[in-house]
Specification:
The chain is of the alpha+beta class. It contains 8 helices and 15 strands. A hairpin with a 2-residue loop joins strand 10 and strand 11 (about 215).
Length: about 325
């Protein structure tokens, strides 16, 4: 089977920052709770002109430069970022493709919310293995879903960690470095309508429409969602991580690093313990918050910068998104 590896990756974040102290004023939640329990030291917030495609394109340009290729060599651009994008009913991938000069590519979107990055990596790998014309494929994502949160709505409390930013991963066909080895995903459809946009989540005095989106993100049945996630979230995370690793011909004990979406600190540590890792074998995104499917590129970037990923390590990138889907992909870092 033709190998597919990561040839470049990057992230980009807006300059504007909201700290835990800032969020305490907006939410009424004590600063120490935001920092220590919810894991929000700070987050980046996009300005009006820092759209999803703008942020994704800036990250993509850095990933392309890191790989040392010309954008014209890219055969496909996949956007797996937020649906709260520049325009509704619109292909954000085409705009990203135009922005970066990928003049010989085609472009499409795929959407799995915060589980999108591992699924996009798996999808791109399969397309590249089937089509020899796809030497390079770019995955790009941007998110500013924090725009859609009403901080006075306690039902959306678990989304108060949302932040803005962009990420990109460039894949190369026949590349013997940073090779994608296995992937897994699972969806619990009973949670499909637990988080939706509703007019009821808009506070009196606030605009009903943000950009082209009406309403705010809301939880339709908080009791059911809490009960169901309490039953399935940990085992589903463990399952997709284990299956991705086993597809790679390895075992959980072989994993040296986990890059996972931002979540409350206690659950993050519980997942690490369940798969036999420590906090020194992962990074916690408390200075960025949850940036949808940008989190995995960010975790990879931070893991390398902090020396937590070494050549030859088996690493896993994992996420989960409302809907509710859990996903993971295993990568052998460095030369195979």
């Amino acid at each position: 089977m033709i190998s597919v590896g990561i040839a470049g990756f990057a992230t980009w974040f807006p300059r504007q920052i909201q700290t835990a102290a800032d969020l305490a004023l907006l939410t009424g939640i004590p600063e120490n709770v935001l920092r220590e329990k919810m894991g929000i030291v700070q987050r980046h917030v996009a300005a009006e002109d820092e759209t999803v495609t703008h942020m994704a394109s800036l990250a993509a340009q850095q990933a392309i430069a890191q790989a040392g290729i010309d954008p014209s060599q890219i055969g496909l651009v996949i956007s797996h970022g937020s649906e709260h994008k520049d325009h509704l009913v619109w292909n954000a991938a085409a705009k990203i493709m135009q922005n970066i000069g990928a003049v010989n590519a085609y472009a499409f979107e795929m959407y799995a919310l915060c589980a999108g990055a591992p699924i996009a990596l798996q999808t791109a790998r399969a397309l590249m293995q089937a089509d020899p014309r796809l030497e390079y494929v770019l995955l790009a994502a941007g998110s500013r879903e924090n725009d859609l949160i009403n901080f006075r709505n306690d039902r959306s409390r678990f989304m108060f960690n949302f932040g803005s930013g962009g990420g990109a991963i460039l894949l190369k066909r026949g590349f013997a470095e940073n090779v994608i080895l296995g992937a897994s995903a699972i969806t619990d459809g009973s949670l499909s309508e637990t988080v939706v946009l509703t007019p009821a989540a808009v506070s009196e005095g606030d605009p009903a429409v943000v950009g082209e989106v009406s309403g705010r993100l809301d939880v339709t049945d908080a009791a059911y969602m809490a009960e169901r996630l309490g039953q399935v979230s940990l085992p589903n995370f463990v399952r997709v991580i284990r299956e991705a690793v086993e597809q790679s011909g390895a075992a959980l004990s072989d994993v040296r690093f986990l890059g996972i979406t931002h979540m409350k600190k206690s659950f993050y540590l519980e997942i690490l313990q369940a798969i036999g890792l420590t906090a020194e074998q992962s990074v916690y995104l408390d200075h960025y918050g949850h940036v949808q499917s940008v989190d995995q590129a960010l975790a990879l970037q931070l893991g390398l910068a902090q020396g937590k990923i070494q050549p030859g390590d088996l690493i896993v990138l994992a996420g989960a998104g409302t809907g509710y889907t859990w996903s993971a992909v295993a990568v052998r870092w460095g030369s195979v």
